[in-house]
Amino acid sequence: MSEHWFISGANRGIGLELARQLKARGDQVSAGVRNEEARDALAARLAPQHARLDTLLFDMRDTAAIRAAAKTIDSPIDVLVANAGAFGPSPQTALDVDFDGALDLFNVNTLGPLRLAVAFLPQLRRAKNPRVVLISSALGSMATVDPSTAIYSATKAALDKFAQCLAVELKPLGATVVALHPGWVRTDMGGPNAPLSAPESVAGIIATVDGLSLENSGSFLDYRGETVAW
Question: How far apart are the two ends of the chain, measured CA to CA in Å?
Fold first, then answer.
């Protein structure tokens, strides 16, 4: 049975591969992209399938734009994937911080996904098995310490906490919320030395999301469905 997925940051990397694989298996996909250039890039990369893909334009920093975009979707959303994000300024150690850059990164990586979850709540409420997937990173785990990625890691650790809190708040609605580590993937952000290809990671993500239930809500999982230490 096909489902309706909403994916932010769908014009490249993991988001693009999610859209590609989901469309290939017959799911309905709505895609959030930052601007018209990103929309055109997505259309070109998914051709000829892009004609059946709904795209919404908004910046993850822009609450009003996200809310306006959400109001254009009338149908239930079964799976919301908050995927868009950035790595941030360099350097970003605790002793050498670009404070303005750090604040902007929190705005995108941490508050952006929360904006999406709130804006699309009406569509999630109408789904039979609503799931919210916040794309995180193992670097956000308190069990992992890498001073060279302090700011990025902190944005993901904060996102993980929101996943826990959203899981509690949305449980009465029957919604499952997880933080999900996609693995170290060969994308623009992950770089050429990453061990995972985007198709490998995304195939695992889709299988994991397909199998989610309320028992998993509030969990931190990787693309294989295995638990990641907080």
Answer: 33
Render 74-86 in DSSP notation, one character per residue.
-S--SEEEE----
Active-site residue identified among 5, 58, 152, 220: 152
Distance CA 9, CA 17 (A): 11
Domains, the chain, with CATH or none: 4-222 (3.40.50.720)
Closest CA to 127 of 10, 27, 21: 27
- Residue of 80, 161, 152 whose CA lies nearest to 117: 80
- Please give the Cα distance from 132 to 175 (Å, whole number): 7
What strand order describes the sheet that includes 176-181? 54-57, 28-33, 4-8, 79-82, 131-135, 176-181, 219-222
* The two structure tokens encoding residue 106: 């929190």
What is the tens place of the pLDDT at every residue in 94-147? 999 999 999 999 999 999 999 999 999 999 999 999 999 999 999 999 999 999
Instruction: Write out pLDDT tens, residues 53-95.
Output: 889 999 999 999 999 999 999 999 999 999 978 999 888 999 9
| DSSP conformational letter for 28 | E
Is 152 annotated in the active site? yes
Distance of CA 139 to the CA centre of its chain: 15
Q: How far apart are CA 150 and CA 219, in angstroms?
A: 23
Using CA atoms, how far residue 191 sits from 129, 187, 220, in Å, is 35, 6, 24
Number of neighbouring beta carbons within 10 Å of residue 123: 21
